[in-house]
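Think of the structure tokens as a kind of shorthand, similar to the way a musician reads notation: each symbol stands for something richer, in this case the local conformation of the backbone. In the example below we present two proteins back to back. Begin with the first one, reading the sequence and then the tokens, and try to describe in your own words what changes along the chain.
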Amino acid sequence: MTVWFVLPGDIDDRAAPSGGNVYDRRVSQELTALGVDVREVPVAGTWPRPDRASRAALAAALADRPAGAAVLLDGLVACGVPELLRPEADRLNLVVLVHLPLADETGLDPALADRLDGAERASLRAARAVVATSSWAARRLVERHGLAADLVHAVLPGVDPAPLASGTDGVSGLLCVASVTPRKGHDLLAEALATVAELPWRCRCAGPTRDQAQLRLVRGLIERHGLGERFQLLGPLTGASLAQEYGAADLLVLPSRAETYGMVVTEALARGVPVLASSGSGVPEALGDGGLLVPPGDQAALAAALRRWLTDADLRRDLRVSARRRRAELPDWAASARALARVLATVRA
């Protein structure tokens, strides 16, 4: 089977690592290992709102594919441009991979969110199949866009095996791995940590900082609460540098207001690191019983959970046991690729 995989042009941009890019890269590699002929087609652009040149490049990429070809499109590229997908929908077997419903991004102007939502609906209705990265996201797409349930498939992210983290003192080493954007909730985390400033902790935050407004907000909170060097924004990290941060972590904190799955949750659990995360969206599916959940956007609940972690040795012991148990249950990327291959085989039949 040959699969043409249309990707955002910055998939290898190490200055802006993302879970979506990791997912695309790893399933591409594992599909190839299964014997699938994966041909990547990167299309540069400010997706999901591309300029004229990017739109032309995507249109050309689709037109160049042979009739009957299986074309897997990253949703960031596909979901905002239904007018480019519809003309090819009968000729090609289009499959759209949705990492995050476009309108679920926090902080969008309501009018823009409505336009993106409508465009996504039209794009997904032009596809032969839709792939979501969690069961929650699959259900949401069905309900939100009126899609047939058998059109939408959940293909969960895998995780690569990793050694157990050594941590710091077993308590105070907090890690957040997320882009500094409104959706990821660094502002909530800074406010929550300010309420436990009398306790020993250090929080290191790895992730891109391209959203300048959110970066200013978070830095302002750090200064206002006198958190100083205790709350550090490290910028984007990948590879060995990111692995080193996981290895030194006692607890991963992910205070997202919305999260389709939360790949950093399973990356922490793969190292036996417990997780404190927001309960909204698809995070519970990733976490299992490997940590604590608090309501999304609830700063008081987040602060209370952090205080429990920092002061309750029995809780910490129990969570470490649970995290290691969950570690043994996590799927790998080969399982993700097999599930995706089954979806692709269906549209080719």
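Once you have a description of the first chain, move to the second and do the same.
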Amino acid sequence: MISLLTLPAPAKLNLFLHITGRRADGYHNLQTLFRMLDVGDELSFQADNSGEIRFSCSDASIGGDDNLVVRAAKMLQPLAAEGSGVCIHLDKRTPMGGGLGGGSSDAATTLHALNLLWQLELSTQQLADIGLKLGADVPVFVFGQTAFAEGVGERLQPVELPDCWYLVATPDAHVSTAAVFTHPDLTRDSKPLTLADLMTSPWRNDCQPLVERLCPQVAITLQWLVEYAPSRMTGTGASVFAEFADELSARRALADLPANCRGFVARGLNQSPLLTALRHAV
């Protein structure tokens, strides 16, 4: 029986993001292409018989019972044997408020880890259904594939993309996802397109014009990055990215990163490194 597990929680990019309508429940219908990356957070899990969920993080600002990792664990605990507990440590590496899916990915990794450690034997679909209650981006990380998503992000279709490298730059700014999606000026009427049409059309992010206006740092960072390659914002920001054919070109651009930004180079993957790590853990 496995009791100790260390797993990655990879970041993602939204290669495009179209908002096609607002639902009665306040959520939005969208079309997006999630791209998995080979960088992200890392979580360690130590299962025990304490009946408690204990959490620590390398970032002191993340704590309490309201973070997605603890909430994910609490959703699974009633399904586990009596007395099942766990000690979780999160090594936080993905910028918060960047649109890179860090918290959602952490939650998905937690669901997979505790499914294994607590021997729950839930299917991937069952984990994704639980994850959707935590957030719209959690299911794609549970399935762990670069994917075209519709609905609120839960209807997923795997997509195979060519190998490439990305430079991701995050200005010194935090963008509230809730503030973006509740703003009256957000574009909400993009015409739904087929995946085939989307793959041959220019890609855009419907949130980007609003966020550039609300957060000038994002606009400034995009103006810098577009000098190296076509650039867009991911999710609701504040992180922006550009695609490069090779790692060296991306790292050359990273070397010129403005002083008010953090950045990293990542490889785009069709399968999440979480799935690879889980196969090796079994």
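Compare your description with these statements about the second chain. The longest strand covers residues 28-48.
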